[in-house]
Amino acid sequence: MLLMLSTLAGAASLLAVVCHMSLRWTHILQQCSYQNPSYYRWLCENRAQWTPARRWVVLPAGLLALALPLALWGWVVCAFSLLHIWLNPSRHGRGAKKPLVFTARVKRLLACEWGLCALLCAVTLWLWPPLCLFALSLYTCLTPWLAAWCNALNAPVERRIAQKYIDEARAIVQGIPGLTVVGITGSYGKTSTKHYLYALLSAHRHVYMTPGNYNTTLGVTRAIREGLLSTHQVFLCEMGARHVGDIADICRLVSPDLGIITAIGEQHLETFGSPENIARTKLELYDAVREKGGRTVMNWDCGAISGRRYDGGVIRCGSGGDCDYRVSHVEQGPHGTRFSMAAPDGETADFETRLLGRANLQDVALAIAAAHQLGIPLAGLRMAVARLQSVEHRLQLKNAGAYTLIDDAYNSNPQGAAVALETLAGFPAGGRIVITPGLVELGEREYQLNFELGRQAAACCDYAILIGQRQAPPIREGLLDAGFPESRIAVFDDVQDGLSHAASLPGGSERTVLLLNDLPDSYR
């Protein structure tokens, strides 16, 4: 009886460790969009997450189970298991910036991982109880890779389930008579443009937009199935991409009538491979709209867009004289922006908005152009433009008490970062502070682009607070290379520590803090 209790106690404790650690690695896999190549790349780049001795503390327990007296092995394994859980917090829940979401897919993945573990436990218990404890100890140490293996094992089932939902969503879109679908993509600015266009159209049409960051094929599918109604007249569909073909997949799902391309820049180079692949993927929206006989509103101030050849169907929006929608007479200050806009039909209107920065101006202009294309006169948009609010975490101005905060936490690309720094430069000198963990997912260009970020920041801020040890060195080198005083550079491991330090810097009520990017848990 004592032997059985000892064995069961040891096995149960190891099963608890397996469950605990599988949540940790499933959390990372979810942040890698369930893409095994991205997940394996993360494991290679973050060896410190799984190589320390504390990650392998249960393995000696399994070996001891083979050598200790039968009545003791289970209790020794229990002790080692508790030590393992204490030394290795999962960080998938309350302490995470973006907690693990227990979707149906995650539940199926965990069921596979835990089911294999239970099967291993049952077989080895039947063969030889000490072997069970050793096998479970080894299984626990392999959980970083088991998450990916189970993900691959579940892949055929996931594809069938996903296709069923995609077909249902496509039928919903096609079944709404008179629905106008507006596809919105770009390396940056697509979420802001979507929100601004929604605000401009809502007074005139019944509009639905993809919520939050639902901008993948499955995210758009879920948004359609959960929110698109037969009474909606316009559907604003944000389209994100990490691989060539992602935008084309979403276009096949929603069949857009009008397109908006906000910008093309270096982002997700690890998965795209090259800037040309990024451009080709973003322009998949243009190709889909043109095939349907529609038109695409493009940010003509973006050289990566205006420098290409097109086969008709382009609506140019920008500040150049050759633009169809031309922005002029721009006046910017800490309290907002004033500008004029001319339409292709000759109509002109003056606008005023509380939004800050060149990036917001470009996004607002694209939204105005798209709304005008949908039949709303420029004059009918002036009041809505004046009422526009900043999109959360995108050059959002906040009063943080000890300083004014420009929250640009969702900015994760070099071009957007340059615009954010330009916005910070417009505030009073002496108290301008940038807090950033740098830019990621830029492949071989990551070091150089973070170095350039440091050089750009040197001309726009008075203090630099760098977060984390991965991107800090190249940003610091860039700052120093541009002549920035080393005494005004600080490095912290956590954003909150950086914000606390910012409150202690000189400048008083004139302090302005730019929070430039905030990395997810997979980069902590």
TrEMBL record:
- The Mur ligase central domain is annotated at 184-371
Transmembrane segment boundaries: 63-87, 108-128
InterPro entries assigned: Mur-like_cat_sf, Mur_ligase_C, Mur_ligase_C_dom_sf, Mur_ligase_cen, MurCDEF_CellWall_CoF430Synth
- Output one GO MF annotation: ATP binding
From which domain of life does this come? Bacteria
SUPFAM superfamilies in UniProt: MurD-like peptide ligases, catalytic domain (SSF53623), MurD-like peptide ligases, peptide-binding domain (SSF53244)
**Keyword annotations of the record:** ATP-binding, Ligase, Membrane, Nucleotide-binding, Transmembrane, Transmembrane helix
The species this protein belongs to is Candidatus Ventrousia excrementavium
This chain's protein is named: UDP-N-acetylmuramoyl-tripeptide--D-alanyl-D-alanine ligase
Q: What is the lineage of its organism?
A: Bacteria, Bacillati, Bacillota, Clostridia, Eubacteriales
Residue ranges occupied by any Mur ligase C-terminal domain in the UniProt entry: 393-514
